[in-house]
Amino acid sequence: LARYATEFGVLRELLQNADDAGAAECRIKLSVLPSGGRISSVRFENNGSRFTAKDWERLRCIAEGNQAVDSVGMFGVGFYTVFSLTDEPLVSSGKSCMSFGWSGDDLNYCFRDLPTDQEWTTVALPCREAISWDFVKLRE
User: Fold this and answer.
1) How far is the C-alpha of 23 from the C-alpha of 37, rounded, in Å?
2) Interval 41-60 mean pLDDT
3) What DSSP string runs through the chain?
4) What separation in angstroms does the CA of 87 have from each of 2, 47, 94, 113, 117?
5) Do the bridges between strand 26-32 and strand 39-46 make them parallel or antiparallel, or are there none, so unpaired?
6) How remote is the C-alpha of 108 from its chain's centroid?
7) Within a 10 A sphere around the Cβ of 3, how many other Cβ atoms?
8) Separation CA 31–CA 110 (nearest Å)
9) Distances (CA, A) of 120 to 17, 28, 59, 138
């Protein structure tokens, strides 16, 4: 992750993935803790193309450690940036979702079908630790 330790790295990568998918619109939803106002989770949504079998395969390869260092494109190595915020990202697109979780040093994944078709591709990131608003500094 050292290569991605730049300010806003996660949001930049998710925006790039959305652009690669042809998204016309993106939404970022923040859940805020009532005490102290720190961010407890980030939800990123885009209305680009729904995942294909190849997209899910690429995402699965991340958990298996097979992603090439020089890979580019939607959910390539840039997706690793989500692990700077969370240990358990969840991606949903179309009628499927994939969740990740750690067991010791091993990254595991679970692929599931959803009961309904999702119009937006979503990346849900429950924060490992509550983060400050500096994560989303807005420029005037």
Assistant:
1) 30
2) 92
3) -GGG-STTHHHHHHHHHHHHTT-S-EEEEEEE-TTTT-EEEEEEEE-SPPPPHHHHHHHHHHHHT---TT--STTSGGGGGGGGT-S--EEEEEEEEEEEEEETTEEEEEEEEEEEEEEEEEEEEEEEEEE-GGGGPPP-
4) 16, 25, 23, 22, 26
5) antiparallel
6) 15
7) 11
8) 24
9) 13, 12, 17, 24
Q: Which of 121, 61, 52 is nearest to 90 (CA)?
A: 121
**pTM exceeding the 0.85 threshold for the entire prediction:** no
**Distance (Å, rounded) from C-alpha 88 to C-alpha 74?**
19
Least confident interval from 65-74, 98-107, 126-135? 65-74
Residue 46 CA to residue 25 CA, distance in Å, equals 6
Q: What angle do CA 71, 72, 73 make, to 5 degrees?
A: 135
Count other C-beta atoms under 10 Å from residue 55's C-beta: 22
Task: Identify the pLDDT of residue 59.
Answer: 86
Within 10 A of 137 (CB to CB), how many other CB atoms are there? Answer: 9
Mean pLDDT of the chain: 83
